[in-house]
Design goal:
It is a single chain. This protein is mainly alpha-helical. Helices cover about 50% and strands about 5% of the residues. It has a two-stranded antiparallel sheet. Strand 1 and strand 2 form a beta hairpin. It starts with 12 loop residues before the first strand and ends with a helix. The mean pLDDT is about 90.
Length: about 110
């Protein structure tokens, strides 16, 4: 572990601008007891890794439901899936057969061409 780092290095700075043209900077929220936005980069990272674990578990459940075909399980979480899971769980569930299957993903790409 790098001991030269201190808690001052543990902040989030987003490259994306909001409607006012400002970048998100978690240091604004550091002194707040119960901030409405993340203030700790490490905690935020751990939280999102756990959320991705939940999605991977759903992929495994779908793979089992589809008959556990050898080498078809796909645990990769695309940006499209992550965004859909975050915003519209119903639509995400409807696309789960594609998200969880390597073969279904390949077929889906062929159909879009």
């Amino acid at each position: 572990a790098d001991m030269s780092k201190n808690q001052d290095d543990n902040f989030l700075l987003s490259p994306i601008r909001n409607e006012q043209g400002e970048h998100y900077d978690s240091r604004i929220y550091e002194q707040q007891e119960n901030p409405k936005m993340p203030k700790d980069a490490d905690a935020n990272g751990a939280y999102n890794i756990a959320r991705k674990g939940i999605i991977m578990y759903e992929h495994i459940k779908q793979w089992v439901a589809d008959g556990k075909e050898k080498s078809d399980l796909d645990l990769f979480i695309s940006d499209e899936e992550w965004d859909l899971w975050s915003v519209d769980r119903k639509q995400w569930s409807e696309k789960m057969k594609v998200f969880a299957s390597q073969k279904a993903k390949k077929e889906n790409v062929k159909q879009k061409k």
